[in-house]
């Protein structure tokens, strides 16, 4: 349970870092980042697998690049749902989702693989 809480806080901090690095993404507070990270995690766990399955033919035709579009749309959706978290458009959602994925992957690797 403590590991899940730590990942949630790290993902919220990663979202704040994305907002700092890229002007198309805005987060008003750490609390908004916590809520956005929680909703983003839930959406990625529940909705993303369904969308990936439904868009499998397009994903195969684009050699997997359509996954970036799905990630951007989910990132944009969460920004529309959560107050205090904003994305200025689709391109900002695409860049923001890529940055968020890279930052969370690096921080998870650095922080949580050494503890096993």
From TrEMBL:
Coiled coil: none annotated. InterPro entries: Phage_holin_4_2. Keywords: Membrane, Transmembrane, Transmembrane helix. The chain crosses the membrane at residues 20-43, 50-79, 85-112. This is Phage holin family protein. It comes from Usitatibacter rugosus.
